[in-house]
Amino acid sequence: GELSDIAHAIAAEQKAMDLTPEDRADLPTYLNNLGNSFKFRFERTGELSDIAHAIKVQQRAGELTPRGHAHLPGILSNLGGSFTRRFERTGDLSDIADAIDVQQKAVNLTPQGHADLPSRLNNLGCSLTCRFECTGELSQVWDAIAEYQKAVDLTPQGHADLPNYLTNLGGSFYQCYRSSGKIGDLEEAISCFKTASISSVGSLRVMLEAAHHWAGKLILYDPTSPEIIAAFDKALSLLAMVAGLERTVQGRYIQLELQNLSGLPLEAAALACALDRPDKALEWLEQGRCLVWNQLNNLRTPLDSLRIKDENLAQEIANVSQKLESAGSSRVQSHVDMPLPEKMSLEAEARAHSDLAEERDTLLKRARALPGFESFLKPSPCSAIMSHLPESGPIIVINVDEHRCDALALLAGMEEPLHIPLPNFSVDKANKYRNIFDQQLRTHRLRAREVEVTLSPDEQRGLRRAPIGKNGEDLSVYRALRGLWEEVVEPILDALGFSAPPRVWWCPTGPLSFLPLHAAGIYQGSISDYVVSSYTPTVTALTDRVKNDHSIDSRASGLFLTSQPNAPSASPIPGTAEEVQSIFQRAEGSGVRASKLEGDETSVAACLDQMKEFSCIHLACHGSQNAAEPLKSRFLFHQGDLELGTILRSNLKHADLAFLSACQTSTGQEKLSDEAVHLAAGMLAAGYRRVIGTMWSIGDAPAQKVATTFYEYLFNHRDETSDSAFDGSLSAVALHHATKQLRLGLDDSEHSLLTWVPFVHFGL
């Protein structure tokens, strides 16, 4: 997905074209290839100038190619694809008419038995489908079905393109069903999607799309069908393969975003809950959510991990998978200069694809026979996920889907989750409450850590009017927190049979990920008055820490602090210097091993050296998150930036506690709310067992108050058996105590509420 690569391709192909005389027979080939590269870039960037260039050079390629030439059908088919892409962007009917015209010519010029005929029929079907989606004329979708059906009929079993053709055919049958309401059309669609998704060969991404459709259309057909479980099982297994074979963190992120897959596990879990299968709901949520975070957690893809164990086996799996993926993706003839006798027949291609699929299955069996790789590219079963749960309280996974909302309570000693339906909560309510918070945060100017501004008289206690919606509804933060209590938290506690567990770990999904469950309540009382709350990106992120919990090496036990009050291009936060100095003095007075470097005193490299030497760190600075490239999220220093990727690549074998006294360090990205790509989750991935972050921006003075009170609690309650032992095992309780102390000095205004709520604890 690197745009610089396609830019280099275009430059090279442009040069090739410029160096080729008009009368050279291979000029159309160069033009065709250049056009395809422009089209690929357009599909990533959406720049209309790129698709216009693609059409222009491919039209010229067609004009320069003699009628009857073997390359002409391929060039015309590619030109039609470019017209279709532009139509999808602009809606100009003349483009789709041109696409259908040239693709029909491409089909007519392609001899029967030619290996490329099915792909050209499929391309024509795609353009006909686009026209139907614009005009709504049912006869046009039947034209598309006819072309897709020919492509399917001409393609032998075992060919990698067959799942793609079947998925397109199923989509057109489903469009017929939506227009006509005939159940037979829906049955045909389901049959196509099922056959495509269970194929032994083909593009994993295409098969994943088919499996998603198979499950979704089955729900429409018969929501009680036991086959739905099989369909979602297939979809989530394919998602595990697709994500596991992706080579980079950014690559996973792009695939999730482009394929609109982030909602798949939530949809699957909602269905599992409706069928009273909480075990499946947990498996699917754990498998399908936080794919980017899971890779961050290891800084390696599953293939990277395997490569450490068996480099040759990992490379073989990567090579075979790439060949199958390329073979089963929609064809674009980038190179049309292969002589016809050299082209493989469809039957030979099918045999080759089947051989590749068998080879991959054999390689995967070899990998799964290795110790520690039994679940390589496979979902973990419920029993494995439920092992090593914390003894001190439940993990509460909350699934928020457009069809229903449910909680899954995981308690030590139980074999499967306790299913708690949440019938009074919904995606719409979660989004409503989130919008309330967004609006009030803007109103109160809580966008960056900075010195507090003096509020106007109308903004002071008792004088601010409660925000009112168009229909007179209460749009205050108090209303949102009351809704979270009544519709989410209280039903969960009631179902658990106790009102005050010592600890609760929240694992929310969807838009609920942006809301402070730890502060839900009917004020002046909230869950925070009697429950110590923490968060975890996934269940496994916490259970792995329970499983591998160990004492800190006494030589590394201690606290490193740094303040960066005047980072370039960021607002001054002078309180960070006082904050760090105050904590440092308290640490020394308590006999805790401590070190501090402030402002210009430290470089990024020096900070990293200290992080390796100390089990706990306190970063009082600005933070900047990069959701698209999580490894480039960073902390802003006077002398450069400390990037998350740099931290992850460091060997922090003593990492225990990270306190991020920076703004918005636990805020995710709206488009992929189930991908924990914020700085707090990144520090967990770097190896820290517990992290303090903030859900939104914090004021300079409250940040100092919470931080100093937090450490006072830890210093006063540290293990007295050692003169200098210090760790973060009580960090969740310490943060709970610190925010409670902050509240005691605040009034009951909404601004005060937004002052203490953002502080959150992740991990053990």
TrEMBL record:
<protein>
    <submittedName>
        <fullName>CHAT domain-containing protein</fullName>
    </submittedName>
</protein>
<feature type="domain" description="CHAT">
    <location>
        <begin position="480"/>
        <end position="763"/>
    </location>
</feature>
<dbReference type="InterPro" id="IPR011990">
    <property type="entry name" value="TPR-like_helical_dom_sf"/>
</dbReference>
<dbReference type="Pfam" id="PF12770">
    <property type="entry name" value="CHAT"/>
</dbReference>
<dbReference type="InterPro" id="IPR024983">
    <property type="entry name" value="CHAT_dom"/>
</dbReference>
